[in-house]
Amino acid sequence: MADTSKSPQGTALPGNNVPPAAEPVAGGAAGLPPHPFAGMHRSPHPHYVRKVAAVVVVLVCAFWLQGLARNKNLAWGTVGDYFFDHSIMEGLERTVIITVVSIAIAVVLGAVLANMRLSANSVLRGAAGAYVWFFRSMPLLVLLILVYNFSLIYPALGLGVPFGPQFFDVDTKNLVQPVTAAIIAFGLQQAAYTSEVLRAAILSVPNGQREAATALGMSNIRTLRRIVFPQALRMAVPPIANESINLLKSTSLVAFISVPDLLYSVQQIYNSNFQVIPLLIVASLWYMIIVSVMSVGQTLLERTLRNTPGRSGAQPKAIEVDQP
Q1: What stretches of the chain show up as alpha helix (H) in DSSP?
Q2: 3-class SS at 6?
Q3: In angstroms, rounded to a whole number, what is the distance separating the alpha carbons of residues 110 and 192?
Q4: 116 near 129, Cβ under 8 Å?
Q5: pLDDT tens profile 165-191
Q6: Would residue 25 be called left, alpha or beta, if left means φ above 0 and alpha means ψ between -120 and 50 degrees?
């Protein structure tokens, strides 16, 4: 008796004992049980709650903005008059300088401290740990006042041979000016936090990449510069950027040591015309503008680092091989 099995197209194949394929089942593949939700259609859900919440948020914001615009105590005319005032522009420039220089010191010193904490030498590791512990324990305002009064602790700094002649010395009262004291205090304390961020980012780089670099004959410094730091930097940029924004706002503390920054300049003006609220609004608006610019810079930097070779989504480049 001839075999009546059929091919997938329905053609009988003599001698083929494979059973015929099952008929397709609605809602599932052939031979598989149908999906439990097969045949069910999603009913249109209008999301009334979300729409009502969005309308409420818009109305609250509109009423809030209307209240700000019509509030005569805010004196928006005075805000406009002093927004580009000469003394405020000078204070703003000084605030930006203190922030940028302090961040530069923190990143460089933080990188050194992070490598010291990861060193196999226990003395270097202990010294870096003690530095981080001290500056993280010290309140920023207390540190700022201490550095400002550094001349009371060390009236002069000099260089010479221990228990021998001294080549020269410097009067610290003239050396540590208020702006210098602010930069030193902010830079030293920010370096402690930045070093911890960089240390965590360096540890997150897989050891296999260091081993591969060593197998290729790369030195430790070159491995750190070409392999470890570029990857660690991508992970360290967001927290360092957030710390930088916090540092910008913390620079308002320099008003305690009479550094004419943005807030101090505003205080000097409203002490003479008693327009406290409008001048504080001027300072707040400038702080928000600077923070917005820094946030945009952070986004662009993260996007640039994300598109560098070695990251997913980055366009790979051809590798040139030297011909023997």
Answers
A1: 48-70, 76-82, 86-117, 122-137, 140-148, 150-153, 172-175, 178-203, 207-215, 220-223, 229-250, 262-273, 276-306
A2: strand
A3: 6
A4: no
A5: 777 777 877 778 889 999 999 999 999
A6: beta
Backbone angles phi, psi at 119, to 5 degrees: -75, 155
Question: Which positions ≥6 away from 131 have C-beta within 8 Å?
Answer: 113, 192
Predicted model pTM? 0.73
Distance between CA 142 and CA 189 in Å, rounded? 11
In Å, how far are 54, 57, 67, 78, 288 from 62, measured between CA atoms? 12, 9, 9, 23, 20
Tokens of 145: 């006042």
Tokens of 10: 């329905």
Please check whether residue 156 is in contact with residue 171, taking contact to mean a CB–CB distance below 8 angstroms: yes
Residues 6+ apart with CB under 8 A from 88: 82, 262, 265, 266, 269, 282, 283, 286
pLDDT band at 320 (very low <50, low <70, confident <90, very high): very low
- DSSP annotation of 156: E
What is each CA distance from 195 to 116, 138, 145, 228, in whole angstroms?
A: 10, 16, 23, 15
- Closest to 189 (Cα-Cα) out of 132, 242, 231: 132
Those residues with Cβ within 8 angstroms of residue 260's Cβ, 6 or more apart along the chain or in another chain: 87, 90, 91, 94, 268
- CA pair distance 190, 186, nearest whole angstrom: 6
Report d(CA 138, CA 186) in Å as an integer: 12
- pLDDT tens-digit readout, 113-160: 998 998 889 999 999 999 999 999 999 999 999 999 988 888 887 777
Parallel, antiparallel, or unpaired: how do β-strands 166-171 and 156-160 relate?
antiparallel
Closest listed residue to residue 250, CA positions, set 142, 106, 141 = 141
